[in-house]
Amino acid sequence: MNPIFNKTATVAPPGAAVSGVDFDYRSTAVFRQLTLSFQPGVVNAVVGPNGCGKSTLLALLAGVLRPAAGTVRVDARDIAFAVQRSAVTDTFPITVAAAVMMGRWRRLGLLRRPSAADRAAVQRWISELGLTDLCDRTLGELSGGQRQRVLLAQALAQEAPLLLLDEPSTGLDTCSAARLIEQLHRCAGTGTTVIVATHDSVLIEAADQFVELG
């Protein structure tokens, strides 16, 4: 069973959905006939114990993984996907400002220079996530919570209609976590489909809808 618990009523068509999905990891079944949908304009939380497939579900929605059976549908061409901080090397020689600008690469295309709008979007999210004083530092010089905020700023700077975040509050202090929740609701308020995989009880409580995997 994969029950869906709605805190808000909605009749909008789903922004993302999986239907009858099977997926195996190293010959171990992760999903069998998984069917779920996620609404746009709300913050959707995916919850459950370690190993239940939360990260796998986000990767399937992002197109990083492919199901063995079933269908994955997203009503968006642009997808912002922020992986867990532990999946990113801390020694990658890139500054905070450059890392956040990477979130605009899809919009830029090959060999294009950032426009004023691109730079404004990057600066906005650097400011919103409290990274202004860290812009010239490399990722390896940052604390775990600071690197987490960089990954979040990078994803948010994409301004994509589908936002996928894997354990986004890991390593964040109380103030940063509260700021994150505020920004997620702002994104949802613009019609973005926000899907967050999390163990964080505060973030789960702040979500509009949550799906429990088990």
UniProtKB/TrEMBL annotation:
This is ABC transporter--like protein. Keywords: ATP-binding, Nucleotide-binding, Transport. It comes from Mycolicibacterium chitae. SMART domains: AAA (SM00382). Belongs to the ABC transporter superfamily. InterPro entries: AAA+_ATPase, ABC_transporter-like_ATP-bd, ABC_transporter-like_CS, AztA-like, Metal_Ion_Import_ABC, P-loop_NTPase. Residues 16-213 form the ABC transporter domain. One of its GO terms (molecular function) is ATP hydrolysis activity. The keyword Transport applies. Pfam families: ABC_tran. It comes from the Bacteria.
